[in-house]
Design brief:
This protein is α+β, with helices and mostly antiparallel strands. Helix content is 42%, strand content 17%. It has helices at residues 27-41, 116-124, 146-154, 171-184, 199-209, 242-247, 250-267, 272-291, 310-315, 337-354, 361-368, 377-443, 447-451, 466-475, 486-495, 500-520, 528-533, 553-559; strands at 15-21, 53-56, 59-68, 71-83, 86-95, 99-106, 127-129, 132-133, 139-141, 161-165, 192-197, 219-222, 239-240, 480-482, 547-548, 564-566, 576-578, 582-584, 594-600, 606-613. The radius of gyration is 35 Å and the shape is globular. Mean pLDDT is 81; it is low at 1-10 and 295-336.
């Protein structure tokens, strides 16, 4: 699909980059050193070893450290508020676990170029975005790098984009084209990787990816998680044609790619570890703010309050500000004698009945509630601080809850959009098949078959719940065996009001049965993933887009323990095994249920389903 966006169109223009380092132990000191060097280049003399904050006219720089659990964090920030373009804010948050999050924003929406600080970090550290190395230059790759490129494009843990330029057999054009690619992509460094392929590599990539490939003298934008088996997925990864690259001005192409990278960075969800770190800094700042409250001031409750008579109120000018008055000081000769006398009589009666000498809030409360001691100013202030502290913490919790909800909503929307596109393609294929079959039967004068409805007994009988699905599997364990926790499945049933998840799970079970049947028939000798992508004729299946053949290395390193499920001793002597392969069942709010399984066909001839439940933790979940 051709990229047609106007490069001058409004959209996110901030710079956001997420990096992981190959040397975690060097991350924090290097980030601080490079931040101080960058400040010095800007004429700001800041020594982070002796102070945590620098303030001057319109400039505020700070370096704050924080420890949470086993990880140490540092946040470096520069705010420049008095510039012709508004306020610029640069923030780097880094962890001893080996990651860096860099953000540069502008209050007036001005375009943020690649900051020098980002280049400094890329030059000082080996930084990566999952399998993508982040460099401030364009890479040139030949055929020996194609396998690495395919792995990079398919990587779902990748946050940034990959811009790939293909070339043809015109050797005289190659060097000039490579230089122009460097010009077009110079504002995406740190947010994306730019690659120019040799003609041989371009052809090999085309053979490997088909619809997802890039043509000669074209440039294609690859978003994370390329799925070559799904033709519909190729629509996401837009390309610039040869004609566009030849006819557009360099600055327009550069702005187009820069805006594309920034728009993607603005919508890409932050890793949970970054969110946790930023929230830790926010809570620490809140605690410091509450602790820094000044000396207590007199409370309104402790001020003497007097009640003026109606005459005094009526005699006051309409534009006068309210004043605290003591009726005993009022010159009664100037007021209306009857009204003042009546007021005085009423007040005297109140004083007499309550046994007080003056009408104040404290005196009235003590008279009405004997033994009640009015709170001191200090205790009132302490209570107010506690109430404010509680309120702020509640608001922080609510903000974090809404942030988590937004993250899950964005992820669910992305899944639903892709699933909807796949369903539209499947529906169109089914419609074409129905039209073709009806025409064939009509030609044979079999109009009843051509235009009649399918018999009721041909409709699939779906289970009504995941628990019922598990019960069905338990009755016939010749192929599929459930070894997991039924209670996890009940959680899905509680949320699956439209039975979307259980239907997908049942269709996945049918596909797994068909896979085993194909292998038993001798018509297939590969794994489940390839079976779904290249299903042999005569066998049913499920969309390959719903299947995940494995989990990413980062996910398994951090959360692999969640994916270990029980199996019989004949499958594993330890009676547990890691089940990386899974099916996506549905997008149901924050649940996004999955079904994990282990293909043991080559050993026992069976498939073991170890889990049906909510989406397990990965780098993008809460």
């Amino acid at each position: 699909m051709v990229e047609t966006e106007d490069p001058d169109a409004l959209g996110p223009r901030d710079y956001r980059a997420f990096m992981r380092t190959e040397t975690p132990q060097l991350t924090l000191p290097t980030v601080q050193d490079q931040f101080v060097t960058w400040l010095r280049d800007k004429g700001i003399d800041f020594d982070s070893t002796n102070r945590v904050e620098f303030m001057a006219r319109g400039v505020r720089a700070s370096v704050v450290e924080h420890t949470r659990g086993h990880d140490d964090y540092v946040r470096c920030r520069l705010v420049e508020s008095e510039t012709p373009q508004g306020t610029w804010c640069t923030e780097v948050v880094a962890s001893s676990a080996g990651w860096i999050d860099l953000t540069v924003t502008n209050s007036e929406g001005y375009f943020v170029a690649v900051p020098k600080l980002a280049r400094y970090l890329m030059q000082a550290l080996d930084v990566r975005d999952a399998s993508m190395q982040l460099l401030d230059e364009v890479k040139q790759w030949d055929i020996n790098e194609v396998d690495r490129l395919v792995e990079l494009l398919e990587d779902q843990d990748r946050h940034g984009l990959v811009f790939v330029a293909g070339t043809g057999d015109e050797p005289d054009l190659y060097e000039a084209f490579r230089k122009r690619v460097s010009t077009w992509t110079r504002e995406v460094f740190g947010m994306a990787q730019s690659i120019v392929l040799t003609p041989r590599a371009t052809q090999m990539l085309s053979d490997r990816l088909g619809y997802h490939a890039v043509g000669p003298w074209m440039l294609r934008t690859y978003y994370p998680g390329v799925a070559p088996a799904q033709i519909v997925d190729s629509r996401r990864h837009r390309y610039l044609t040869t004609a566009t690259l030849a006819n557009e001005k360099d600055w327009r192409l550069r702005q187009l790619l820069a805006n594309t990278a920034r728009r993607h960075a603005a919508t890409r969800l932050d890793p949970t570890e970054v969110i946790r770190a930023k929230r830790a800094f926010a809570r620490a700042e809140t605690r410091a703010l509450l602790a820094a409250f000044g000396e207590p001031t007199p409370s309104d409750r402790d001020r003497t309050e007097v009640v003026p008579s109606p005459a005094v109120i009526s005699a006051a000018p309409t534009d006068a500000k309210p004043q605290a008055l003591d009726l005993e000081d009022i010159d009664t000769d100037r007021a209306e004698p009857p009204a003042v006398a009546a007021a005085e009589a009423q007040l005297d009666l109140i004083r007499l009945v309550l046994g007080i000498t003056s009408i104040t809030r404290v005196a009235l409360e003590q008279a009405i509630h004997p033994g009640h001691t009015a709170p001191s100013p200090e205790s009132l202030r302490s209570g107010a601080l506690q109430a404010a502290s509680l309120r702020i913490k509640e608001q922080l919790d609510r903000i974090e809850e809404l942030e988590d909800f937004r993250r899950d909503a964005v992820r669910a929307l992305e899944d639903q959009q892709l699933e909807r596109a796949e369903l539209q393609d499947d529906l169109e294929k089914s419609r074409r098949t129905v039209r073709w079959l009806r025409d064939r039967f009509a030609e044979m004068s079999d109009y009843e078959t051509a235009f009649g409805e399918a018999p009721e007994d041909t409709l699939e009988t779906y289970p009504a719940s995941c628990v019922e699905l598990i019960d069905r599997l338990g009755k016939d364990q010749d192929v599929l065996v459930f070894t997991g926790d039924r209670n996890k499945a009940r959680v899905v049933d509680d949320a699956d009001t439209l039975q979307l998840a259980v239907r997908s799970a049942w269709e996945a079970c049918i596909a797994l049965r068909e896979y085993v049947r194909a292998r038993n028939d001798g018509n297939w000798d590969n794994g489940v993933d390839q079976f779904l992508k290249n299903r042999p004729e005569g066998y049913d299946g499920i969309s390959a887009g719903k299947h995940g053949a494995t989990e990413t290395a980062v996910t398994m390193k951090q959360f692999g323990g969640e994916r270990i499920f029980p199996v019989p001793a004949e499958v594993s002597s330890e009676q547990v095994i890691a089940m990386k392969a899974h099916f996506k069942l549905a997008s149901i709010g924050m649940l996004s249920p999955r079904m994990h399984y282990h293909d043991d066909y080559t050993n026992t001839g069976k498939i073991y389903i170890g889990y049906i439940g909510r989406h397990l933790t990965n780098t993008m979940t809460n």
